[in-house]
């Protein structure tokens, strides 16, 4: 496994594979890798000849300096996890797994401030877009750069960040990137908590408390069968808010493509509930989602 730190080294490595007719998978990450990321990398290794994994805590998508400062940075253990995934897939496929890790500095990515503006309403203005102004603009800045550097055949994103995929889908169409966007299912702990790099910031007690988020979402699937959409939405919010140490920031039940709120279960055949909850003393901001249809 090769680790490169500059755009020119990344391009040179990938150009060599591309000139041999190899397909390239890209897995953009901010590091602090866990089993959720491993599932994206595993899928990319299976579907492509070579996989680029970027590890970069992108400052332009943080609108809170404290959040950026406390974001875990763990390059060494990230590389160990990637080596383990590469070995596993290689022994299953009976063929070498090729991973190029791209771990650039902030100066390498942003030699000068990125002033580009991306705007894809309503996907980037609702929910996370409303509570974290500028967040999706920063995501589009970095992801568009990564797409241009790596020119991947396929790019892999986890569905835990459901809204992020909807925004990136719009950007891919808008900018005409010639790649296949591959959304991958949420990976959960055995007890149901959605895997997130932020989970490492929870104390043991907070970790126990956080599991109420996914449990309530799962239970709401049953509740929704005999209740209106708004009743279900309110039931989720009040059940989670009653748990000490949890506070719902929003729970929106939306059309899975436009991300616009809907008012009845009959309004769409693609319905997803997206939640953000503050958990614990820091607090840690946790997101999750559940598909109703
Ligand atoms: O989902 C993430 O980890 C980040 O938003 C991404 C896509 C790597 C861009 O920094």
Sequence of strands across the biggest β-sheet: 1-4-3-2-5-6
Per the principal axes of the C-alpha atoms, what is the gross shape?
Answer: globular
Total number of strands: 9
Structural class: alpha/beta
Tell me the span between the first and last alpha carbons.
40 Å
Number of helices: 10
Q: Average pLDDT across residues? A: 97
SSE pattern, N- to C-terminal:
EHEHEHHEHHHEHEHHEEE
Biggest pleated sheet? 6 strands, parallel
Low-pLDDT parts are none
Ligands, ions, cofactors: pantoate
Give the strand content. 15-25%
Share of helical residues: 40-55%
The radius of gyration computed from the alpha-carbon positions, rounded to a whole number of angstroms, is 19 Å
Characterization of the model:
With 293 residues, this protein is α/β, with parallel strands linked by helices. Helix content is 42%, strand content 19%. The chain has a six-stranded parallel β-sheet, sandwiched between helices. The protein has a three-stranded antiparallel β-sheet with strand order 7-8-9, covered by helices on one side. Helix 9 (204-223) runs antiparallel to helix 10 (229-241). The radius of gyration is 19 Å and the shape is globular. The model has no long low-confidence stretch (mean pLDDT 97). Bound molecules: pantoate (PAF). Pantoate (PAF) is lined by residues 28-30, 58, 61, 139, 142-143, 161, 164.
